[in-house]
Amino acid sequence: MVILKKFKDARNTCNNKIRQAKTGYYHQYFKTNSGNPKEIWKSINELMSRNAKSDEISHLTCNDRVISDSADLTECFNNHFAEIGLKLKPDEPDELNNCLGDYLKQADTVFTLDLTTPSTVFKLLSSLQEGKAMGLDEIPAKLLKCARQ
């Protein structure tokens, strides 16, 4: 029993020292990089294990078949997100389609959007800088650049 107590005391002391060292390191790191938000977020993401494992999805099982073609992957994702509402609430399709009006107010002004070409969209997506913050849609630039194909 004496050996077990000594082991636990040594383990706890070691864990406390490691915790103190990590705290001191990150305190100094954040203090040093206080003017560099990119480095701060890089460190936060490392601490929270939010590092991307892969840049793109290579294959996916959709309708009991494995697909790897980018067009088929896109179609599979599109179908999934287009149909998820009806799958979650199959008894209320009209409610799902009509509930949007509950959140919208009638606008006093009218505006139009100019037509755009796929090449214009491709150029704009290609010019996005991956290291910048997300927009209001909260879609990372890296994902948009990956989806442009």
TrEMBL record:
Stated name of the protein: Uncharacterized protein
Organism: Paramuricea clavata (Red gorgonian)
UniProt lineage: Eukaryota, Metazoa, Cnidaria, Anthozoa, Octocorallia
